User: What shape does this take?
Amino acid sequence: MKRFTKDNLISKGKAYNRNFVNCLSGFKSLNLIGTINTENNKTNLAPFSQVFHVGANPPTVGILFRPHTVERHTLENILQNKCFTLNHVDENFYKKAHQCSARWTQSEFKATGLEEEFLNDFKAPFVKISPLKISCVLKDKITLAVNETVLIVANIEEVWVAADAVEDDGFIELNKIGTITVSGLDSYHSTSKLDRLPYAKPIQKAE
Amino acid sequence: MKRFTKDNLISKGKAYNRNFVNCLSGFKSLNLIGTINTENNKTNLAPFSQVFHVGANPPTVGILFRPHTVERHTLENILQNKCFTLNHVDENFYKKAHQCSARWTQSEFKATGLEEEFLNDFKAPFVKISPLKISCVLKDKITLAVNETVLIVANIEEVWVAADAVEDDGFIELNKIGTITVSGLDSYHSTSKLDRLPYAKPIQKAE
Assistant: This one.
């Protein structure tokens, strides 16, 4: 195994360091975040790999935003009208999802051809073909002193997902709906289920 | 598609709600966190799916801890001696990784047979067979007002990974080293690379 120090990495240049470090945490979730600017009704759609579980009751998610990137419109819209959608991405439209990260002047929905959808009077747009859609309402905003990244904490209001992907105990079979995962900044991956394991107890040695 | 509201979910019981909501963010990273209690030299190893990228320069990660769970020893050890390791998990030992979540009285290394390793005088133990190992030093601790979860922010010091898994631009081919991903609380998945996509520009419509 080769050893890399943080000084090694930085000496190899910004792009190298960014690619390397973005892979270190492991595979990441991929969501398209749908928002709307309520002043001009312009919708926005942006891919994020920094959405994570914060709590189950009430259902709560966190999203980490870099303040000076193309994702800024998403953050501004969320702070403006307090609501957004999360939309899982499958193999059929991950290239369009990636294309949403370009600096479009028009709405990313129009630019990429991903159709927008409004459900149940929620103020932010969903991605019509997404296999799992979530409406979220802003709860808190925390700026991390370490590097000025912004952590948005939000409550989940409603979820739309194929009923047959939800098992009797509430587990959602993400493989069944085709949700993909991302590594680093730009590498997309499908998954194969190895196993669901039972609650671990200290009875016997693991296999 | 079926619609689930947060009231629907909570009415189905705690376990159902927990399983469902833990799947909503999408696929998650899986890391074994290695720590040591420096008062009695007892090592600890615990699986976490809440490790995420915070920044590339300096290399920074975040971990979200629920305060009243079995993972508490990990948090206490980190707060005590400021250091810990992250260890990716592959198909060969994910069952042992899962077994580390049981409430053992002895060190999880001993209980599961995962061999511990100390590298370069770093105070916390690594998992010898892990394909990607990271040493981290505590930088900040933030308690989220929303539900008292604790966000640990840490700097990455050193990384050990197979040299041939690192591409010329710094990207790490996690598929090559076998890193797996997790969904919900207990579902493990291998991945297949679909594609790495170039930096998106607003030139032409996505395919």
About this structure: The first helix of chain B runs from residue 6 to 11. Chain B has a mean pLDDT of 94. Chain B has one domain: 27-189.
